[in-house]
Amino acid sequence: VSRGVGLESVVGVCLERGVDVVVALLGVLKAGGAYVALDPVYAGERLRWMVGDSGAVVVVASSVTAGLVGDAAEVVVLDDPAVVGELAVQSGEGVGVVVGGGNAAYVVYTSGSLGWPKGVVVGHGGVVGLCEWLGRVVFGGVGRRLRVGLSSSVSFDASWNQLGGLFVGHELHVVGGESWVDAGRFVGWVAEGGLDFVEVTPSYLEVLVGEGLLERGGLLRLGVGGEAVPQGLWERLSAAQVEGFNFYGPSECTVDTAVARVGGGGPVVGGPVANVRVFVLDEFLRPVPVGVAGELYVAGRGVARGYVGRAGLTGERFVACPFGRGGERMYRTGDRVRWTSGGELAFLGRVDDQVKIRGFRIEPGEVNAVLADCPGVRQVAVVAREDTQGDKRLVAYVVPGDEPAGAEAVRGYAAERLPEYMVPSAVVLLDALPRTANGKLDRAALPAPEYTTGTGRGPADAREEMVCAAFAEVLGVESVGVDDDFFALGGQSLLAIR
């Protein structure tokens, strides 16, 4: 407050994992400000951009992280002797700030289509509603204080599913940086700390399960979120002696929009959380019948205020709600879902994930689901790549299982179950899928496929030499042998016509 922080002030928090991060967030909120978490693992250029874009007036940092944030705002270095002395004489009494539900609580940055992240402003009312729901549904019914693990970076809004445990009276255990990076250490940290609840992304959970998380830890409850849950992982959790929660929600809707308890059947998004209403609508904003795909819209207390400094984008994504009171808005998620006969939402993929390859509309998630069931495949991610201008190809990235499947076996499995245009042009085997600091799949770090050529004999005469050269030119590779497989090198029907 002495630094001029009050209602609607934005304060950057750039600290390494530890107790100080949690204390700093509480300090910002009690002062009436809104925090923007600046994860030190991000590039300095990105952090400095976030400070300027958010309009932060102060940044709380340490001597290790202070140099990352630039000079766009005043930097308070917690371990600076002058600051240590200043903190020592504070009374600890309340600062007398009255905060309303509509005031900003935090700014979280999500990926932006223009190459820079966009900041979402979330209000106190949404956070209070979320914490009340977490206390009653996720952490309730145990009859004792739970040990909740803060495993998410605070720059990831899902961290509120763990911070919320603290706000409703439970213990918060903060995982150190090394334990988060190393799956084996993470599992050991959970077991040694006797934690009752942690939340991770499905892709990271698959790695943790391989390290024995479900066997070694004494977990009572486990949360997954941030990505769709594969069928195999859902079944593994259903069989475990752990109460599982599948959290769904875009950053624009205060973390959680819907939740499903992991159980029998296939993965579902579930039903809406408290203070939230959801609608599955067609392109004319009309509700669709049960079982029919539509786009998910969210209304209610959890809907964010909008994007920092982007009135046009805010107006495009936060639209008038035709089903509520005058002036009420709903958020257009861009997620394709359908209602199940049991009244739950099933996730079908992103509206903008749908790609068109050679005139065919393809949902990479559908291909992903098929390959996830392939014997010898532990993890898979299917994406559309355009490494050569105008030549878009489907590529599958596979982490082999205990009895590993080779690339050709995976393509063969797909070819037996999918139409030709949905079979990946290449299968890339990886030791592990790359993840962002938040534990999600890092699509930008997926390597371009390398097509192996020249495995058979070379051309025997001028005619064969001309044909091989033509194939190499069309396929965009250096050379092609007579016995090489056109389709294994990324060939498809339109390239065959060329």
> How many strands, which pairing sense, and closed or not: the largest β-sheet?
5 strands, mixed
Shape: globular
Helical coverage, percent range: 25-40%
Backbone CA Rg: 25 Å
SS strand fraction: 25-35%
Q: Give the termini distance in whole angstroms.
A: 68 Å
Which structural traits does this protein have?
single chain; alpha/beta; 5-stranded mixed β-sheet; globular
Write a structural description.
The protein is α/β, with parallel strands linked by helices and 498 residues long. The chain is 28% helix and 25% strand. The protein contains 15 helices and 24 strands. The longest helix is centred in the N-terminal third of the chain and has 15 residues, at 124-138. It starts with 9 loop residues before the first strand and ends with a helix. The model has no long low-confidence stretch (mean pLDDT 89).
